[in-house]
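Incident log, structure service

09:12 report received: a user says their structure output differs between two submissions of the same chain.
09:20 pulled the input from the user's history:
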Amino acid sequence: MKVYLLKNVEKVGMAGEILKVADGFGANYLIPHKLALAVTPENESFYQKKKKTVEDRKEVIATETSMLAEKIKAISVTLKRKMANGQKLFGSVAPAEVADLLAEKGVSVSKNQILFDKPIKEKGTYEVTVKLSSRLQPKIKLVVAALPE
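09:34 re-ran on a clean worker, output below:
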């Protein structure tokens, strides 16, 4: 079955693509969840034109995203928090805190785009991933320091 994707579907494809998928997957998952539309021989030319428009738009977005990725790579942020015995945090660092620190530097990302390799619970320097797209995932340097008492 051929489908035109309306939204990005993880491990399947990006919005605006025309893909060949298993009949059951298309009919039972993609179409009912409004993630895709069925492509028939009659409407295929319409979706081909639409695909071209979406590809042009994606190219512009990809350029802007890669520029943002370069800006993010150069950023280093410091988070000062209260600590027990000067080493361990009370709790752990939340993605929202990192997103707020990036916002102060002029980079707007959501907390869902901030990925930690493991929970950050101690003082130190960490690399934090910012997921801009499936391909672009720049890393920033996060320094966790003790708050002066």
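09:41 both user submissions now match this output. Likely a transient worker issue. Closing.
09:42 reviewer note: The mean pLDDT is 87. The chain has three helices and nine strands.
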